[in-house]
Amino acid sequence: MKKHPAQLETLVLDQLPDEAVPAYEAALLAVSATVALFRDEPRDTWRIEAVREVLADQDALTAALALAAGLSGHEVVLERAPVEADGWLARTVEAFPEQEIGQRFLIRPTHVPQGPVYGRIPLTLDAGLAFGSGEHSSTQGCLMALEDLAQAPHNVLDVGSGSGILAMAACKMYGAKALATDIEPWSVRVAEENVVMNGLRGRMEVILADGYRHRAIKTRAPFDLIFANILARPLCAMAGDLGRHLRPGGRAILAGLLGTQVRMVLVAHQRAGLVLERRIDLAPWCTLVLHKPG
Question: Is the whole model's pTM more than 0.85, yes or no?
Answer without folding.
Answer: no
